């Protein structure tokens, strides 16, 4: 039944028993008890029909016609009644023709400029509907095959998990509009096959489940697992950076033992060598270990002892 609410988007054309004073817009009246319905396509169809949007357009238009109980007109189930010569049948014929023309007008108004001329010669809404289905239903089947191939081969790639899931769901919805809805198990299989190697740990339990997962449930699981992997990767990177910083930081305890990059004790050894060399020049013979008075004497002696013939 058509609502009488004044806020509705459709225009209900009143019956003929109402006076013209009650209809200031002078709209045509229905000669029967069933009111005529004029569809407001601009407000109720969000985009016009194009060669690539037939499935979406048909779904919206069919829902609109079902809501107003007018689908039988375009399906051919509601036909113009035959006249038996009585005034009552003449009124029914007039009502049917006028309602059918309102539907035909809505179809023409909801098509793009490239499609409108193709159905402009149609006399009834059913004829226009048949032409549109004949022209674009076969194309839709080809598009369904294309979408099925895409959803089979789709990969996550560089996309984020939410974007990847939305891309798969969009393909599944296109296939459902054109052909048949994809089952939850098949959709889950397509999604898991396109995921990267890092999701292998969660893919196995999902495959082993006895109950099918809906897309919403699978979406929540994969997004949560992706968030966990990102947190784990971030924690690992922070640990590596901290370890590298600790390794490169100079040791304050050993810094006093290094002078300009030279080993600790280098200056003392050099001074001892100079002293010992000076002492050796003023002695009659070579230095012996027993004559040394410091712990480093043996080391110094080995370095500075020369043959007796070389001493002055």
TrEMBL record:
Q: Where is the composition biased (Polar residues)?
A: 246-258
Per its UniProt entry, which superkingdom is the organism in? Answer: Eukaryota
What transmembrane ranges does the database entry give?
none
Q: Where is this region: Disordered?
A: 1-33, 246-298
- Composition bias (Low complexity) maps to 14-31
Pfam families recorded:
Retrotran_gag_2
Give the matching PANTHER family.
PTHR47481, RETROTRANSPOSON GAG DOMAIN-CONTAINING PROTEIN
What protein name applies here? Retrovirus-related Pol polyprotein from transposon RE1
- Organism this protein belongs to: Juglans regia (English walnut)
Q: What is the lineage of its organism?
A: Eukaryota, Viridiplantae, Streptophyta, Embryophyta, Tracheophyta
């Amino acid at each position: 039944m058509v609502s009488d609410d004044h806020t509705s988007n459709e225009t209900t054309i009143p019956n003929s028993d109402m006076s013209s004073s009650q209809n200031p817009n002078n709209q045509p009246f229905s000669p029967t008890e069933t009111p005529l319905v004029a569809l407001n396509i601009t407000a109720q169809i969000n985009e016009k029909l194009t060669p690539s949007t037939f499935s979406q357009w048909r779904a919206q238009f069919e829902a609109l016609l079902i809501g107003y109980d007018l689908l039988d007109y375009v399906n051919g189930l509601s036909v113009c009644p035959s006249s038996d010569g009585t005034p009552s049948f003449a009124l029914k014929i007039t009502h049917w023709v006028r309602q059918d023309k309102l539907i035909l007008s809505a179809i023409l108004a909801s098509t793009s400029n490239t499609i409108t001329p193709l159905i402009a010669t149609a006399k009834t809404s059913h004829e226009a509907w048949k032409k549109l289905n004949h022209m674009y239903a076969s194309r839709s089947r080809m598009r369904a095959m294309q979408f099925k191939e895409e959803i089979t081969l789709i990969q996550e790639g560089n996309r984020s998990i939410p974007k990847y899931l939305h891309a798969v769901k969009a393909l599944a919805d296109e296939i459902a509009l054109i052909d048949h809805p994809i089952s939850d198990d098949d959709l889950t299989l397509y999604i898991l096959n396109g995921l990267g190697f890092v999701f292998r740990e969660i893919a196995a339990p999902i495959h082993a489940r006895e109950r099918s997962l809906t897309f919403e449930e699978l979406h929540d699981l994969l997004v949560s697992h992706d968030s966990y992997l990102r947190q784990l990767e971030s924690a690992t990177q922070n640990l590596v950076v901290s370890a590298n910083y600790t390794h490169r930081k100079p040791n304050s305890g050993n810094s006093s033992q290094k002078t300009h990059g030279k080993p600790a004790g280098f200056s003392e050894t050099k001074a001892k060598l100079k002293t010992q060399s000076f002492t050796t020049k003023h002695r009659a013979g070579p230095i012996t270990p027993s004559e040394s008075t410091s712990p480093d004497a043996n080391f110094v002696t080995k370095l500075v002892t020369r043959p007796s013939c070389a001493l002055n």
